Structures are given as structure tokens and as C-alpha cells.
Amino acid sequence: MNEESEGESLPRGEATGDSLMTKRYLLGNEAIAHAAIEASADFVSGYPGTPSSEVIDILRVQNERPLYVEWSVNEKVAFENALAAAWCGLRALVTMKHVGMNVAADPLMTSGYTGVTGGFVIMCADDPFAHSSQNEQDTRFYARFAHLPCLDPATVQEAHDMVIDAFALSEELGLPVIFRPTTRICHSRSDVTIGEAGTETRKGEFPRDPKRFVLIPGHARPLHKALNEKQPRVTRVLADRGYNRFTRRGERAVIAGGIGTTYVQELLPDGVSLGKIGAYPVDWEALRGFVSGHREILVVEEGEPIIEELVRQVSGDIPVSGKIDGTVPSEGELSLASVSAILAAKGYIPKPSGAPPVPAQNVPMRPPIMCAGCMHRPTFFAMKKVWRDAVYPSDIGCYTLGLQLGVVDTTICMGSAPSLGSGIFHAGDPREVVCTIGDSTFLHSGIPGLLNAVYNGAEMTLVILDNRTTAMTGHQPNPVSGTTAGGEVKAPVSLEAICRACGVSFVETVSPYDLPSTIEVMKAAKAQKGVKVVIAKQPCVITARRAGVKRGSYAVDRDACTVCGTCIRFGCPAIEMVEDRAAINELCSGCGVCAQICPSGAIGPEGKP
User: Which of 202, 226, 241 represents a domain boundary (last residue)?
Assistant: First the structure.
């Protein structure tokens, strides 16, 4: 990690060899997926989570290289599958988003002890600004916590190159390697130079070694010591890779990481030194050598002040600015405009190079809403009819939009709804508890919460919103969908059987499009004691449309409409007011629920008297 001249290209992974290179305009996740193909990956698993989902969605339909691909039921299971494959000598990739790493943290912390034989790359996509997440979180902490190398790309091209190199790096060190792209890397497009698909094939074989793979205390202690002893070598190998580079050009310096580096490089004048941090752990001596001799340092990074803390530890009396002193925001994501403002405020550039975009005036707010015909809307409508004053713990999914309908009181993490519901009941809240959770989320981590609620005698109703897919992240299949990631047809898992096996005696399945029946079943659930489960089952309207399901459309009889507003309050985007009367627009999917709730009978199938 020596000081280098500008413009030196970063290393390419060994797997590309002398392959024919081509340039394509790719989404970041497309580039990452293709890099896995070039690196001769053998095994890929993950759980969908934006912004990481497209990687497996691309790999499961590609035909450039044969490889095993699966959507696992959660991130811990995905991690353990891929880790086992890497133990067997295969090149394995596991994908997830930052909050998914919390679920996979248990095997993550042990994987450094056992090490790997084949290359094992852990793609964990962080989401600064929480575009599609319940929090902001920095995976670099997990890398430091687990004593594993972490690669942090600054561009889409670098993301592609890092993935290829990560497999080789993992095999060289015998350790998993964390790869941490962020939303702006995963979902940006760029010209990317790519190579041909790798042709190397491997046959997995587990190397039986209890002292390495059976983590009882007597084995764990020496393995922990061995992991610690590897750290100087890890630092040296990363330094040799050139992902951390320093260019001395003046008395002041900016040190940046991730996509912040790209913004800084575009704006920084020639007279300011630049340090680029793309890999962790960082060589402290090289960092200290670069920092010394400058009269001030500015650190620009997204997430937590991880680089800044390293710089402050080696800076001595040299002033350091960044997140800790408030120069760089502690929340959200960076942009070219925000970095420009930071550099201008510190006097590194004369003035900001561009103002942030200003929203157009008088544009009405358009919060996200459920699709026209979404099965969640009538389910929530029925819940409100039956339980007018309840506590509504909910979960992560499209149905979190039930917040706008007044039936979502909590959302913290995957699978939390039944556990929170049980806790609220045992806390003594006098209101009834009605939880909602999606099919994929229930299978991900909701089953233990339901089991615990039954075992410990909670009183609550769990409504499982079964739309037969993992809709929010892009309609990936799950065990109730009837297909695998590779398209293989499988018998769908029975949610009813799972719930009964957990000890629930009241388990009923309804179609939310049949609103009267749904209401009656929910009334029956309300009348029962203990834990009750209602499964609202109807395919996602988007996947149904893609499958060619046609339900026709509905229309409003203007003469019969009394302008009572019931259909408008229902909240379907297909229903609107036109010339002082309700009307149904082209978004209608034909679910027919609006006709069931109209008190004047003014809504019916289009074209029928």
C-alpha cells in the first residue's frame, strides 16, 4: 500500500487470465453477477433484500456457466449453505443486504475460525439513507468484528473487479472475504469491462477435521488464536492488492472510502493529496506515513467514521475533520452535491460545483401505496371491520404500507410480528393483538415467534398474508411459490400444516377477494382464545398478471353513485373522483372488492347491466 501515481489501474482477479475483454453498459449488480461467472463460481445462495437482490436473479437465469443457485429461506441458512460449499472446495458466493448480516452473524463469527478451502465471498449490500430498509448500518464493523477482509468498491467497474479478486484472495488467505457495495454501486449503471465466463469446474468433497469444524471450546480457543495470528498477513496481502492507494500532492489531504472516493476524485484540485481506502484491514504504517507531513486531513466516507477513527489514531497533532466533528453528515448517503459542499466549506475548492436538485413547486405528495387489486388491502379492510381498537404489530414487506390504513403499529425486523405481539399481550395491554406477516417473512424467521407465543400462552391473532411470492424485493420464489430459484417445480409448503405443528388449533385460510367470508372467519378468530392464525391467500396481483390471469375490470354506475366516499377511502389507486362521482380507471385488476364494499351497489363488472 505504497504511495502511487494517479491513474494506475486496480488489479484484476486471477480468474480472468487472458480472456477476451469486452465493454458493456451494466447495472452494478449485473456487473457483480457477471464477475462471479468470470471467477468460475460454483455455488450461490442468498435471501432477497434490496439493493442486493438482482445478483441472484441474474445468476439463476444465466446460461454462460453451470452453477448451483438457490434462494434460501433466510440469510443464516444461505450463509451456512455457502460456507459448507466453500469447506468442500467450491467457490461460493452468498448475497444479502446489511440487515441480513444481522441474521447471518452467528455463522459469520465462526467462519473465520474454521476458514475455507474454496473461495468464499460474502456480498453484503449496505443501504445508506435507508432507501428501502428499516435502518442504516455499516457492514465494515462486521468485518472488523469477525477479523475478516472487507472490500469496499468506489465504482461499478471496481465492484466487478473486486468480486473476481475476492475469490482468489479468499483462497490465498483461507478466509471468507466480505464484499460491501452500497445502493449507489448496486443500482448505478456504468460502462464495465468484463471478461469471458470461467470454465474451471470443481467437485466438492468435505475434508473431515473435527478440530477445525467442531467448535467446542477446546477447539475454538486455538482457532481464535490462529485467526488473530493471520491478521498481519491479511494486511500485507491487501496492501499488495493496491486497493488502498495514496497520492501526495500538497499540504492538505482528503482520505475517502467507497463511492465517496469517486465524488472526491471528480472534484478535488491537483494541489490536494488523495488517499483512497478500498480494503480493510488497513496497513497502519502506510496510513501513518501518508498522513504525516500534511497540515490537515479531511475524511469523506458513508456510514460510520471507520476510516476517520483509523486516521485519528495515526494523525498525532494533525487536525482531522469528518463525521466526528460534524463536517461530514453522520446519516444518509453522499452525493456529488453534498461532497462538493463539504469540500467548499473546508476551502478545498472555491465554491460548490452544483446545487442539489430542488423539487418542483406545488407537486402533491405521492407516498408509496399498494397496487390496485393488492390482496393486502381487503385483508386490512376486514381486520379494521372486525378489530376496531387493537394493537397491530407488523413486519417487513409490501404490507408495511398498511401503515396508511391504520393497521401497522410496529415494524422493526424480519419475523418480529408474532414475537412483538406475544410480548405486548404479556405486558398487559388490554387491547386485542392482531399481527400481520408475509408468507416469505413467516418462513424466514416468523415461525419461532409463533411457536413461542403458543408455548407461552399468548392471546393474539396472526394474519399471514400469503401472496405466493417474495413481492417487495422483486417477486423471488420462496417455499410456498411452488418453484425454486432455478425454475424447478416443487410442491408448495403448507403454511396451515406448519401453524398446526406449532400448536395452533384455529387455522383458517381465506381469499381476501371474498370480503364477506374473510370478515366472518376473522370474527370467528376473534371469538376464540389463545393464538389464532388466519391465512389470507391470493397470488400477488403483479405475478398473476404476468401469468396471464385476467379478471376483467369494474365500472361505476354514475347514476347510482351516492358520492358516499366508501370506495375512495378504501384507498385503491384504480378508484378516483371524476366530475364529482367515483370512477374506476385503467389500473383496475378486476379483484371486485370495491363492488363488495359499495353500500349503494353502484359498482359492478364493466359491460354488464
Answer: 241
Question: Do 567 and 377 touch, CB atoms closer than 8 A?
Answer: no
H/E stretch holding 193 reads: strand 189-194
Please indicate, yes or no, whether residues 421 and 565 belong to a single structural domain of this protein. no
CA distance 22 to 7: 20
Q: Each residue of 307-365: pLDDT tens digit?
A: 999 999 999 999 999 999 999 999 999 999 999 999 999 999 998 876 667 778 877 77
pLDDT digits (tens, 9 = 90+) for 134-155: 999 999 999 999 999 999 999 9
Residue 581 lies in a domain: yes
Residue 421: give the domain boundaries: 376-546
Question: DSSP states of 396-454 as a string?
Answer: SSGGGGGGGGT---B--STT-HHHHHHHHHHTT-SSEEEEEEEHHHIIIIIHHHHHHHH
Instruction: Give residue for cell 372488492.
Output: 593
Name the one residue in this structure whose C-alpha cell is 469517486. Answer: 262
Question: At residue 338, what are phi and psi to the nearest 5 degrees?
Answer: -70, -40
pLDDT at 609: 54
Picking from 328, 345, 362, the residue at the C-terminal end of a domain is 345
The per-residue pLDDT for range 472-489, each reduced to its tens digit, is 999 999 999 999 999 999
Q: At what angle do helices 515-527 and 376-386 cross, to 10 degrees?
A: 50
Number of Cβ atoms within 10 Å of the Cβ of 84: 18
